[in-house]
Amino acid sequence: MTTSTLPSSVRIVEVGPRDGLQNEKQVVPADVKVELIRRLADAGLKTIEATSFVSPKWVPQMGDNTEVLTRVLTQPAPGVAYPVLTPNLKGFEAALAAGAKEVAVFGAASESFSQKNINCSIAESLARFRPVTEAARAAGVRVRGYISCVVGCPYEGAVAPHKVAEVAATLMEMGCYEISLGDTIGSGNPASVRRMLETVARSVPVEKLAGHYHDTYGMAAANVAASLEMGVAVFDASVGGLGGCPYAAGASGNVATEDLVWLLHGMGIATGIDLDRLVDTAAWISAQLGREPASRVARAVLAKRAQARSAN
Ligand code: HMG
Ligand code: MG
Description:
Blueprint: E1 11-14, H1 16-20, H2 30-42, E2 47-48, E3 51-52, H3 65-74, E4 84-85, H4 89-97, E5 102-108, H5 111-118, H6 122-139, E6 142-148, E7 152-153, E8 157-158, H7 161-174, E9 178-183, H8 190-200, E10 209-213, H9 220-229, E11 234-237, H10 257-266, H11 275-288, H12 296-311
Parallel strand pairs: 1-2, 1-11, 3-4, 4-5, 5-6, 6-9, 9-10, 10-11
Antiparallel strand pairs: 7-8
Helix pairs in contact: 2-3, 2-11, 6-7, 7-8, 8-9, 10-11, 11-12
């Protein structure tokens, strides 16, 4: 495939405030979350997943969902969408009450992961999502669909691409506007991701697919590059490489947003994001968490800045 088939621009869905912070041992104060979301919008992110309306008994880190979303929506940045996760009607109603205009349902291609993550089978989860999509349509709220374990499952190993395609087709039929394909444990590589995308794209147009690649084994950027060649032009990423998944032991964060932006800009693909501001934000949230940014690009940019300062 030649580079002329690559997209000229990519939409990045920033998931750090949700996928990142849901997995921090410490509960991050709402003030910090709201400030992180503000800084991400300043850096040019146009879609920022703000929080999740899940059970606080399951994920206490997101227990301040109503406060965070309400405060963010009090002063929304122009043209920025702030989707939130909603696993069921109860979560959807709470999100709607807090002002959500976009939500996401999240299922899995592996039965064991579905049970561990949302306490039900794949079929039961799809039955729970249907009333959410119906209520969302009635309220004029957009719904995105996530699928976890699209190439590998922490409990079952390799996942067959046709299982992903089946769940993706059902989510589309329910009215999801986009399907985000989650390599939850980052076990994919360009070959397995390509095989999965080839199969899924027979059921769902590739324009409706997004890549959500965790970087556990350092393959996330390679998986993005393979997906770009397959025509995928939407990717989820987490500033500073924050995060993981509370129900996938050992899973590390998503591809870092700054690594993704570096890759795309280097390939001549526009994102609308200011890399310097993004690196500042990665450094800021990492400092709030008491550590250095995990991403290679943030570390490299910060080291280069420090070198330039000491040379002056
Ligand atoms: P359950 O226990 O089966 O639910 O949990 P239930 O309906 O039997 O209700 C039990 C209790 O939870 C009740 O309260 C409900 O009111 C309450 P009680 O009567 O015991 O006091 N409850 C809720 N409370 C607040 N918000 C709600 C809600 N629903 C029920 N929405 C449930 C089922 C789905 C709620 C639970 O399993 C859960 O919250 N799971 C969340 C798991 C999660 O957040 N995982 C991380 C996000 S997914 C992810 O990271 C993957 C992704 O990034 C893609 C990838 O990387 O693969 C998206
Ligand atoms: Mg994830």
